[in-house]
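User: Okay, second chain of the day. Same drill as before: sequence in, structure tokens out.
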Amino acid sequence: MAPDAVRQMHLGLFLLGTGSHIAGWRYPGACDSFQDFSAMREIAAIAERGRFDLIFLGDNLYADPLAHPSYTARLEPLTLLSALAATTTHIGLGATASTTYSDPFTVARAFASLDHISGGRAAWNAVTSASPAAGANFGRAHPAHADRYAIAEEFVAVVRGLWDCWDEDAIVADRATGQYIDPAKVRTLDHTGQHFNVKGPLNIGRSPQGRPVILQAGGSAPGQRLAAMTADVVFSVVQDFSEAQHQYAAFKQLVAAHGRAPDSVALLPGVMPVVARTDREALDILGTLQGFIDGGNAMAMLSERFGTDMRAYDLDAPVPDLPLPDSYHSFVGALLGKARRESLTLRDLYNLVAAARGHWVLCGSAERVADTLEHWFREGAADGFNVMPPYFPDGLSDFVDLVVPILQDRGLFRREYAGATLRGHLGLGPPWDGCNPYALT
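Assistant: Same drill. Structure tokens below.
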């Protein structure tokens, strides 16, 4: 790991148009739609002004009117990012595409296209769809947790193999000779596996980054294994420093066990910062947001996360001893761990989920927020953060205008972009690091 004098944070923006807080859209002046492109363009411009590494879009494959507004009514992520590629110049553009309900050829082609359109700024969040509700929209039974990750491992390997079917100089376009493509520099994949049979190659040349960046967010043991083998950036769900520090050390060891340099993968915990010029102002903002919470929506979200109807339990009693569900392992594991450590009631968990869907909430003055982020970064709990503003655009502007300058003054974050690609922002070298770029590894 590089010394702190040169090591700098990575910052991703988790973009939910109505804000990460379930009622963020109700805050005065807040964006109230994830279908308004002009608003998304403004948000992207603020994040790029703040020199963020990337914008990240999650996804949902079904609509639940009681769920978070931005997961129920939203623009399709790749369509939105392709449009934002034309309005931004440096910031990375990452989106989720499910390994459970997509196919490798389509995903590989779409993200290679985004990489070309953006000039080397694309990132794919390779996730298994957690909720069984998605299956009904695809005419399929939802696979069990272990099966989803077996599918995902092969899926990611095939996508990487398809990206590698073209040499960088395969497209000759020689006007004098009339040769457009050198056939010797384009290969078929000829993959035959347990879940996929894919011939290849893609019908698009090698992308500007060599391969788009791979993001991961799995918190279960199979999810961590997949991330350690294949990811460039990993998003994590944590609730406190000691938990984050332990998770960071364990994950870096797992990366090394898979033959990769630990600092070649950036671990970014999710954080919802509620920031103002003073602690009191920040607490007032959070209090206003919490006052907007609809109890039915928050309880429905809690029930979905835990895979059981939580209305059957007393909100003011200790959190019941519940097993991990077949979905949302990282969210539920983080919440249950915090509940046991701090003797929380179910109402306490209810409030946590209502505020940030189980993510870490950091509320305070700009100095307090910057101090906390620096502590986590320097003390082995994070390589940076996936920033989840409670509402847009001001929740992001406050972070960019108040917190980012402090981090810059302390030498913890860039003042200017050093390159034009997302791999460059992340300090990543060629995607194959001296190994055979065409191997399914």
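The radius of gyration is 22 Å.

User: Thanks, on to the next one.
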